[in-house]
Amino acid sequence: MKPELPERFRHFAPLERAADRVLTPLEEFIHSQTATSLALLSMTLVALVLANSPLADSYHHLFEQPLSIGLGPWQVSMSLHHWINDGLMAFFFFLIGLEIKRELLVGELADLRAAMLPVLAAVGGMVVPALIYVAINGGEPTINGWGTPMATDIAFAISVLVLLGSRVPSGLVTFLIALAIVDDLGAVAVIALFYTDSLAMDALAGALAVWVLLWVFNYMGIYKVLPYALGGVLMWALMLASGVHATVAGVLTALAIPAHPKIRPQYFAELIERLLEKFRKAPDDDDIHLNETQKGVVMAVEKVARDVQPPSMRLEHSLHLPVALLVIPLFALANAGVHLSMEELRNAFAHPVSLGIIAGLVIGKMVGIAATAWLAVKLGLATLPQGAHASQLIGVGLLGGIGFTMSIFIAGLAWPGDPALLQQAKMGILLASLIAGFSGYAWLRWVSR
């Protein structure tokens, strides 16, 4: 939250007022969910345009360029595409880990009864799409992609729900967020357990040892971020060498980050009041520079303000924009470039890979989420979100079929050396996400009149 300061409290540069009138609305937009989705959508469109233009070969060649990072004898060399998918996406998974931890401690998943509805709905929304995909691809080599239709793209799904404004209750938005976070946790488990070809046990043991060390740091009361950052990088490198997808290190590192503040919040006001009293008593003979006493107080206020925030909360806040506006759009640019033609669009509804993904995301997600949630409510295991009614669960289920980011990510793991099948998978994901998004919006708009 940005503090609102009366003008008499501030010094203004000559053009600052004019700049504020332009930059303040821009800053508010950048921090909104709409900006996140717009950045992702824009890069997706750019990737599609490039992949279907005379620049297509150059576009694909760019992301296959090798890039090496080394220190002494240690060196990691991968293509730009792999650096984005295995490296930058670790920050995305780190953010997911922080969100999961927050929800488990203080969010919708902290209370068992409140958590039952999104947890059960998410499980249904993962199992049914996977079963539909397996039913369509049973006995075929393409069955390896069963994990692709299990995922939900939280940014796109929430953005569509936000477009409906006051038509949908806030409890429904909270339900979808909690559901998507459980969905992400399931996707991470699927990646770690089922999309690992071979294991180097010594490297995996090293990664787990680093993770244990991070938890030791946590229990020792180490609140500085640097030790966890260094441990996270080391665990990422060991995971990469082990054969387990390196982005899993992002989630594991996040779970080890302290989620409790160094200073108890109930004492924050008392500490600040003491410091403010000291600041008031300090000599004030300069309108521009602070004296030594004032500087000491300001630095102490900064430290208290930092220590009252859990490291996990600080990191989640500071990483949200870079991940949303840089990492995810770059991932879309590198992965969403699908060649489109009328023939391929027709094939999408005939090829078992794309058909399985479309059916899984559009039908499977809707049935899995809505039916499981309805059944949980009927059996008394859970209650509907406040202000919501049962028919809206169908709309949430449809929005859960917007798989995009995580689905493309899993498809890349399912067929790393088969561009033809990966092309079919991406085509299915794009079509399914469009169908699910538009139909979910239309359904919720209709039943929420």
UniProtKB/TrEMBL annotation:
Which residue ranges traverse the bilayer? 112-134, 146-165, 172-195, 201-221, 233-257, 319-341, 353-377, 389-415, 427-444
What Pfam family does this protein match (any one)? Na_H_antiport_1
Q: How does it sit in the membrane?
A: Multi-pass membrane protein
GO cellular component assignments: plasma membrane
The GO terms describing molecular function are: sodium:proton antiporter activity
Q: What is its main location?
A: membrane
Q: Which reaction does it catalyse?
A: Na(+)(in) + 2 H(+)(out) = Na(+)(out) + 2 H(+)(in)
The protein's UniProt keywords, in alphabetical order, are: Antiport, Cell membrane, Ion transport, Membrane, Sodium, Sodium transport, Transmembrane, Transmembrane helix, Transport
According to its UniProt entry, the protein's GO biological process terms are: regulation of pH
At the top level, the lineage of the source is: Bacteria
Keyword flag ATP-binding: no
Q: Which PANTHER family match?
A: NA(+)_H(+) ANTIPORTER NHAA (PTHR30341:SF0), SODIUM ION/PROTON ANTIPORTER NHAA-RELATED (PTHR30341)
Membership in a protein family: Belongs to the NhaA Na(+)/H(+) (TC 2.A.33) antiporter family.
Question: Which HAMAP family does this chain map to?
Answer: NhaA
Supply the name of the protein: Na(+)/H(+) antiporter NhaA
